[in-house]
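Q: What does the assembly look like in three dimensions?
Context provided by user:
Components: two
Sequences:
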Amino acid sequence: MNFFTTLFSTLIMSALLVGYSPAAQALPDENEPDQYVLIDIKADKTQVSGGDTVTIGIVKNIYPQWHTYWQNPGDSGTPLEIKWDAPEGFSFGPTLHPIPKIIPYDPLTNYGHEGQTTLIQDLTLPANLPAGPITLNASIDLLVCHEICIPESHIGTLILNGDQAAEPEFIAKAKAKRPIVSDVLATFSEEEGDIVITIPHDNPAQFGDIQNINLLPIEWGLIDNTSTTQVVKTNDGLTLTHKRGDRAISEVPNFPFVVAYTDQDGKRAGLELSVSTSASASAAASLNFIQALFLAVLGGLVLNLMPCVFPVLSMKALSLIQLGDKEEKKARAYGLSYTAGILVSFGLIASILVALKSGGAQIGWGFQLQSPSVIIALAYLVFIIGLNLSGFFEFGGRFGNIGQKFANKSGHGGAFWTGVLATLVATPCTAPFMGGAIGFALTQNAFVSLLVFLGLGFGLALPYLLLCYIPALRHKLPRPGVWMETFRQFLSFPMFITAAWLLWVLTQQASENAIFFALLGMIAIAFGLWMIKRTPKGPVGSLFKKAFLIIAIIGALFPLWHGGGEMKEYHDYSPSTLSSLLKTKDPVFVNMTAAWCITCKVNERIALRTDKTIALFEDKNIQYVKGDWTNKNAEISQYLEKFGRNGVPLYVFYPAPNDQGVRPEPILLPQILTNQIIFETISR
Amino acid sequence: MKSILTLIAAFAFIAFAPSAHAAPQAGDMAPDFTATDSNGVEHKLSDFKGKTVVLEWTNNECPYVVKHYSVGNMQKLQKEATDKGVVWLAIHSSAEGKQGHVTAEQANAIAAEQGANATAHLLDASGDIGRLYDAKTTPHMFVIDAEGKIAYTGAIDSDSSFKSSAIDGATNYVMAAVNALEAGTPIEVASTKPYGCSVKY
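A: Here is the predicted structure of the complete assembly.
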């Protein structure tokens, strides 16, 4: 902003400020006052000594029909703000409001006061007071409204030990307009969009004759202010039902409110109390929490029996058999390390989930399974474990074998990593089983979510932990023997089943060639593991081994790499579809392909289904037509012939019509595509 | 086992049960509307899909609106936001005969006088849009993300004072939401109590 615009806007601002001062506000009333509220400060005593407590009354004399606001102003408005200018040691309590009036302003509702209204505030004096009169000034900001709103600033003055008179009766009267603070234990619940509060009575007659009962929360946003409070008087007390507001109840763990009513003498009275929304959500929701925790531990236990987890754990358990009773301490330590491994993994996953969730992502448990790469990686993992169990290969060095003897294990680290591994292989089985309970956990706060996850992990760890801690249980296990090797081999099959299931999951999310590549990847893994065992002779052999291993690794990693997404939408080829698309003004791209055509699939992967091309197609509004020649299709064959081809792939681009509405000749693309070729063809 | 399944189903239900409130809240889809602006142009909210939209309920005579316009704060926010490609719609929901009611000409004159930088001034004398959004105060602010979801609803900033001097020390929730949407980071405060004068329906 340059100097002149600054000057100009400053001038406008000042003009606006003057224009909007309350006095200039155009009101119909000729006798409009300068201010709609007159402030007066009174006190129950004015002759004081050190350590006294003085009750101050902040009196608002409000212009007829106008109103000021309660501490919870309702849908709009703002409560009075007061700042005392007082010497050090003068301590002011909270400002306490009288019972408010409900002021409807369709469709909104406010809570406020009319006429003369007094707020109460306690002042505690320091032990040593200055000599002579003490003048205390309060700067008061308030909003006063009637159809329109006017903010006002006031200064109120209280003089202690001077000539200001004490007005104890006035203060007592003002105090009587306050709700009675009650410590009765109310109950709170949320039902179908309503807040339900039940207040037990002190004696059966307490709520007998009262009328016009309103629930008035002291905090904003908890109820729909415009709705009326439904009241049911029961033998036990008073049940208030009120439509919920927009604000989350969880923001107000302690819900303070006033129940206002007209008593038998026609006087407006009220009770002020608070109810814990979390503790008495207690009655309903904490039960849910315990159920969820129980369910989580139970679910964790069940996980031990899952085909993906059972083999790993049973081999772990059997290795314990070989442990003598003397090694009790060692067993316990291993049990703890293993449990720690599981809990840390679960805690980690839960933290990521909670963090993503609070970041607003719409995810649930099993989110990691939505990525084809993760599915393939898990399939590889269970496949490798299966191969290991079947005896196809043995882990060497730092990795302990799954069925290896306990004594040979490489310390606590081994047990810890077994826990991590158990969690990892358990994840695919967790999703279908625990989705609901975890869904519940994720709707709760982070702490509850984490606890439910840890419960799940604890359940998973429990059987092994018990085995480690209770030697009697270990004695119940069968004696070691040759059968263990047979059993171990048998256990490889559940792992293979899990791998097969994961590949089936993959079919739901990825193309058929992704499955094919994943299977090739598994073969590459098996091949690589097989190669490791061979020790070829001579440098040539070793070179071969290295080359094969590299091929195997690339082959295994290739499926994990994903070349972007899918074309948003495509049209299945038929001559009529194409001709009607050609009548529009959009460019058209035709892709003739087949499932068995490797070139087609490679082209789709590296050039067509890339983010770049997808964006380009969307940007240029290109209509994508796909013809599938996997099975015999005469119409496609005829189309291929038109371009002098008798096979796929075939890529044809029809540019958009020119200004005369004539579509240029179609462009034939090469059989090997790249992003660049597509881009150049389309931009031509 | 059956009871466990029932429990799981119950939890799943809890997890996915729709909320029962009618008033649009942060996270809800912003209700669509069509309105005519002070230049006679029709605007449909859903046409702005792909862009961040700010809704500002306004009433040029309301002291809280004046608080922000008199020192150029609202104009500055409007400029900052629209410079980022945000659509800023100022909505006048005061009914005829009530404070803040404006004709198209008046709306344009006020906007010119204020040096306002809103994308458009929508006339809503019937209060239909205001009621649709349960707009309570002037200013009551909504920030709608590119997908049409309400990213923020509530007060313009953290200080509900009517004094312009309070603006500097306050946290502006609207710009925080707009910037978070631009940066793709989570919105820290998605809902607050709107402060100001009541909307003069």
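Follow-up: Chain B touches chain A through 51 residues (CB under 8 Å).
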